[in-house]
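User: Please predict the structure of the protein below. I'd like the answer in structure-token form so I can feed it into my own downstream comparison script.

Assistant: Understood. Taking the following sequence of 355 residues as input:
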Amino acid sequence: MADPSPLARALGLQAQACIVFGSAFSGALMNKAAEDVESAGPTASVLAAWTGDSAGSLFRDAVPIRLLGALHAFALSGDAPALSGAYPAANRAGDAEAAWAEGRRLIQAYPQRLIEFMDHEPQTNEVRRSACLIGGFLTVAQETGLPLRCFEVGASAGLNQLWDRFHYRLGDAGTWGDDGSPVDIDTDWRGLPPPLAASVNVIERGACDRRPVNIADPAARARLRAYVWADQLDRMNRLDAAIALALADGVSVETEDAVTWTTARAAPRAGAATVLYHSVFWQYMPADSQAALLAAIQAHGAAASGQAPFAWLRMEPPPNDLANMELRVTLWPGGEDRLLARVHPHGAEVNWGAT
């Protein structure tokens, strides 16, 4: 039997990842899509732009996630009642077999609609990742004793700018944040607690993205929701609550290249600890952009002082290992790079202090 094509292999690997991370429905759809590609079905046609790419390149371009989001967007739109009825909802688990049968029919009938959706790289804004990032912010606040200036690159809709306005339930480690926040985040926290008693005062915040999601636009909100795996309704509810809070707070994201923006906006300033942060962003940057951003970060680090410290906080997979996720911080002056935790890519688990 011939080996599967890189495209089918990438879809199959994405299926496994979905299942491991708690989305059996999404995993089933991806397995069906992989089978359809191998049999030269309509899925192969709508993904033709990536034919010939390596499996690694397909993952870097998030091609399986593009397809999964395009189908979910169709279901959420209400334009295909049979598809919508087969997807999970509050009162039903969803029927992956029926969803794929109708989804495949729609792929064949409306290929351009799906192709246009997939032309834009995925932009998720997983709010639960703040449950991972919070440990880093608290560490910087405790170790510097200064107010925070927080700047996010690759921010998508910018929802995690309001990380200090959420309420966190960190298992046995305790709780943190605003008890009355509409955004309630729980995570399976393992290991020692982060420095929950640290004094946190965010005096400045900002964010940029090359193509930010404008949450004031209903179509943009719908696209953001489409990237939530359909059977993870708690994630959808959390996203909706975070969008409402961000709209009420006037959160905005500047349309700018990360390197240019970081150089201009995130330089250290006396009287505050400046934190540049990102989550699941670095892997999507071309190598030359990674090098340029790293140079900008190191320049800010070199300019830091005890009264104007600079921190680089990131939640990203280690090089050549996209299956795992680390929370790391580098704090200047000094510039020591530390692994704070190993974390779940959606924030469902934090293993604090893991090596």
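That's the full token string. The two ends are 41 Å apart (CA to CA).
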